[in-house]
Amino acid sequence: MASTRNDSAVTVRDVAQLAGVSPGTVSKALNGQGQLREETRQRVQEAAEKLRFRPNQVARSLAEGRTYTVGMLTSDSFGRFTLPLMEGIEDSLGAGKVSTLLCDGRGDPLRERHYLAELLNRRVDGIVVTGRRPDERRSVGQLPIPVVYVLGRSDDPEDLTVTNDDEQGARLAVEHLVAHGRTRLAYVSGPAHHLSTQLRRQGFEAAAAAAGMTVSDLLTGHWSEAWGRTAAGLLARRTSGLVDGVVCGSDQIARGLTDGLREAGVRVPQDVSVVGFDNWDVMVQAARPPLTTVDPKLVRLGRLSASRLLAAIDGAELGRGVVAQPCELVIRESSVPT
Amino acid sequence: MASTRNDSAVTVRDVAQLAGVSPGTVSKALNGQGQLREETRQRVQEAAEKLRFRPNQVARSLAEGRTYTVGMLTSDSFGRFTLPLMEGIEDSLGAGKVSTLLCDGRGDPLRERHYLAELLNRRVDGIVVTGRRPDERRSVGQLPIPVVYVLGRSDDPEDLTVTNDDEQGARLAVEHLVAHGRTRLAYVSGPAHHLSTQLRRQGFEAAAAAAGMTVSDLLTGHWSEAWGRTAAGLLARRTSGLVDGVVCGSDQIARGLTDGLREAGVRVPQDVSVVGFDNWDVMVQAARPPLTTVDPKLVRLGRLSASRLLAAIDGAELGRGVVAQPCELVIRESSVPT
C-alpha cells in the first residue's frame, strides 16, 4: 500500500489536452451542461475514461453549494439499537448517492455541540439524530439545514421524529395471546420511568381491556435477564392462580423469564405463553424455547427517516411531530401452546 | 426546525465589511497566516464572532488538498464487533479533528468497489477497513492514500493490518486455569476453518504443553450458545474422567456450556472452570455464574489503527504486515474454584 499522497492526480486540464478542447468544454461535456456537438462530448468522455479522470467531488460541492453528505449524530454511543438504524439510514442515503458523516455524541452535550458545529462547517446537507430508546432528548435546535430524529424523540414539537409505535406493538402481543386462548395476562418490563415501558404498558392494558381479559400483574424492573428470572419467581409463587400469558418489555427480560419459569417447573408455552420485544436475534434464538417477539423494524425506521431527510434536502416539506411506525409480531415457539 | 436551506450564510465579505478590511485580510487573520497588526487580527476575529461566521470547510479543503475526512469501510455489515472498533476509531479521529465517512460494504465486492470510488471522489485522506473476524479479506488494492485494515486481515502482505493476538489471548486463559490448579483441559470453539478458531487453538495447545497439562478435548462447532450446551453434554458424559477446565472460543459458547454443565449436575466453577472469549457484556453478565473471559480490547484496536492512519496521512511510514495487539483476561466467577 503506497502511503504517499498522489500529487499527480489527473486534472480537467489533462483531459482537455488529450481531447483537444478547452477545460471549459470538458466541464460542460462531463456535467451534461451547455450546448456541445455530440461528437465533442463523446471525445471528452473517451479521454476522461482513458485517463481514469475522477471529477473532484470537493470542487463540485463548492460549485453546487451542496455536499451530498448527511451527518449522523448518535446521541447515545453506538448501542445495539443503533446498528440496524444505521443500516437503514445507509440504505436510503446510499441509494441517493449521499454519504454519511458519523458523529458519536455519547450523550455528552459538549461533545454534541462540537460535532454539530463541525457538521455545519463541513456543509452537510442535513442531519439524522439517532437515539437508542424512544425517550425524549434535547432538540439540537434550529439549524439552517433539515434535521430528522429517529427512535429517540426530540423534546421540541416543531422537530420531526420518526420512531416505532410501542403502544401498537404491545397491543399486537396481547391480541396474539388472546387469540391462543390466554386469559390471565401479566406485563413485565424495564424501568417504570422509561417511555418505552410506559407506552408498551398502555398498549398492553388497552388491548387486554378491549378483549375483556384479566390483568394480573404489571411488573417493572430492569432491562436484564436477571430481572426476567426474578419476575418468573414472583409469578410462579402466586397463590391466586398462575398467569397464562406474559408480555415482556424486551427479549432479554423474556429470555430470563422463560429460564426462570422452566427452572420453577412451569412449562413454556404449555402452561404460560411468553412474548418478548425487540426481535434481537442473539436473545430470541438462544432462548429455550425460541421467543415470539415484537419487532420494532429498526432498519425500516432508519430507511424511512433518511428518505424523509433526503426529500427535505430536495425541497419537500420536512413535517413535524412524532411519526410512529407500526411494529410487527414474529411468532416462534414461546407463545403457542401445543 | 427550518427545512429550507440557509442561503444567507455569512461570508468572508460580510466579515471584511464589518471589520473594515479587505476579504484577503480576513482570510489571513482567521488562518493565522501572513503579517498583520495584532489590532487588525483582533478586529477581524471580533467581527467573525459577532456575525457567527463559519469558515467554509469545503473551500478550505479545496485550497489545502486535504479534506480532514477518513473513510471507514466495514466489510461485513455493522456487526457487533464493529461497534467497539468504530468507537475507538472515532476516538482517535475526533481527537485529530478528522471526520469519518461511513461505508457499509456488506461483504459485497461490487458494493465495496462503488464505495471505494466514492471515497476517492470525495478525496478522503485515508481509509480504515474493518472486518468482524480476524479472517483474511481481499485487499482493496493499491490506492493513492493510506489504508489500514483492522481486525480482519488483508490478504496482501504489503498492507497494514492491526488486529488482536488470538494466540496470546488463549494462552492467558490456559495460564489462568493452570494457576488455579486445573490440569485436564478442553478447548471448545467455533468452526474449524475460522482463523480465530485456529489461532486460539494454537495458543491453547502451546500453553497447555508448556505447563505439562493434559489436553482432553479439542471441539469445534458453531459460534452459538446451542453448540456450547451440546459440547457440555459431550464433556459431561465422558467416562474417562471429567475435564476440570474449559477454554471457549467465544462468550456465547461459554455461556451455553455453563448452562449445559449446570443442567447436567456439574458445578461451575467448583467442578469445572470455564473461560470465554470476547468480553461481550450481554453474555458475560447474564451467564450463571458470570464469565471469566479474554477481552480482545476492540476499542483500543480501533483507536490504534486510526492513529496509525493519521500518522501516515501526516507523512509517517505506514508500515506493513500484521500488528497483533495483546488481549487481556477479565476474571469473574466462572473460573475460580472456591
From TrEMBL, chains A, B:
This protein's UniProt keywords: DNA-binding, Transcription, Transcription regulation
InterPro entries, alphabetized: HTH_LacI, LacI/GalR-like_sensor, Lambda_DNA-bd_dom_sf, Peripla_BP_I
All copies of domain HTH lacI-type, residue ranges: 10-64
Keyword Transcription regulation: yes
SUPFAM superfamilies xrefs: lambda repressor-like DNA-binding domains (SSF47413), Periplasmic binding protein-like I (SSF53822)
Molecular function terms, GO-annotated: DNA-binding transcription factor activity; transcription cis-regulatory region binding
Domain of life the protein comes from: Bacteria
Descriptive protein name: Transcriptional regulator, LacI family
Organism: Microlunatus sagamiharensis
